[in-house]
Amino acid sequence: MSGKLFSLDTVYVLTGLVLSIFSLLAFTDRSNSRRVGSGLFWLILGAIFIFGSLMPHWLTGMLVLLMVTLDGLGMVQRGTAEFKPEAAIKSGSIFLPVIAIPVVTFALAIIFRLMGLDANRGALVGLGFGGLLAMFICLRITRGDFRELMNQGRRLNESMGAVNILPQLLASLGVIFTAAGVGNLIAQGIVQIIPANNLFLLVLANCLGMALFTIVMGNSFAALPVIATGVLVPLIIKPFGVNPAMAAIITLTAGSSGTLMTPMAANFNIVPAALLNMRDQYGVIRFQIPYALTIWSFHVLLLWLLIRFS
Amino acid sequence: MHVQDLLKLSGVAIVVIGLALRLRTTIVVVVAALVTGMAAGMPLFSSEGAFENLPMLTRAGQTGIINILGKAFADNRLMTLFIITLPAIGLAEKFGLQERAAELINRVRAATVGRLQLVYQLFRILHGAMGIRLNGHPSFVRPLVYPMSVGAAESQLKIKHVPDEPVLEKIKSANAAAENYGNFYGQNLSPVQAGILLVYGVMQGLGYTVGVWDLVKFTIPVVVASIVIAALQFGLMDRGLNRLREAR
Questions:
Q1: Using alpha carbons only, what angle is made at residue A121 by residues A123 and A153, rounded to the nearest 5 degrees?
Q2: Residue ranges of domains in chain B
Q3: What's the predicted TM-score (pTM) here?
Q4: A138 and A12, same structural domain?
């Protein structure tokens, strides 16, 4: 029973309910000239959250296409109604709700670990229940009402807008790229241009391929199997007798430099920019590029030196 | 390369061009997915249920593009779970959360924007080493790290109001970056982390059994470099802010 309650499906349903409330509030928001399209968009997303595990995949797929069409036609907008500023709470108790979120996230991660379950899943379930607990605490200390709570959530959600579904869309694109064999093409292209006897160029190509493929896929985890199979093992580890653990883990984080530079990793680079109401959608990426190039060069040198002098 | 291979890459080209032209991202991504799938000869729908043996739209034994899209979208709902934290954060902000966080950091004299980012990055590396992988943008960055950084900037610039837009944008990007730096490079410090297990699994499949602790060991130089380079970048940011104060 408790296993069922504290599951990902439960937090999906809870999030879906929150989205449904956002949707109802959007439908009735007279300050939003596109309230029907906006309400529909969040209603569909809510329905996918609630029923996503039960619905046939083709139906989910069609609903996704409908959402994207609504956004493409410019029918997803934010309400402009300003909420009256409340009297501020001067004590530190205002921190309690936002501290509750990470505390519950951690607690469930650790409880899952102790029960021999997946701690990362526990962290996600914890994020959901932490959000719920934070809502209760927030209502208690502000003596605000539920409608105000949801309207504030909706304000943040609508200011981010359709960007919110980008990570899920990009993950789907990644699956289709993989099914179509795009990665193997990139690996083959690299193999064709690199001379097989120059260790430094091979290391360079390995790290470059990893970063490039991560930039395309938005995910270094998707790039590793492709690059390891196509470049790292046949061209570096096997012919040069390299320590496989060392070469593989350094190749993985060479890909992380790519993650820092790509809008395809929307959940790390684009959603945060929206979450912080940044003017420039690509501001986070711009800031990270010099760092990413530096640490990527470090990976090339480190891998080359470790192979050369071992 | 064959023509069909090049066609498969058209999806990549669509993404690059679409994003460069700043077209609506959601549309660009879905069009790229449909074009790539079709170039690879995938049908639109799987041949099952109401779609069984439907001509044109299905092909026997092949999964449809729309089916893959729907399944992947539902499987990745976890990426959008942060929405459930928005009501509490929104209401707390309305009741002065950001002002309190700024006040709190204002009292710490040694606090600068850059040092704060570095401390936060180390805190996130610690999570990684504890075997916990999470996305800190909604739970830490927006409600706490961002307002604290604004507070630090106020005392660094010796101003009594929120810094102006260009400075604010820079602070926000540094907040998100500190989270990503700590998360990406710190998460391989524990053998139970997904990255380590992925490398283990992939290498196993290629005929090499690698020790998970060996993987953790060889990630240490990268973690050290990730901190040093961040210290440089955030240090430069602090110098920029100090110069801004002197220019006033």
A1: 55
A2: 3-77, 80-247
A3: 0.86
A4: yes
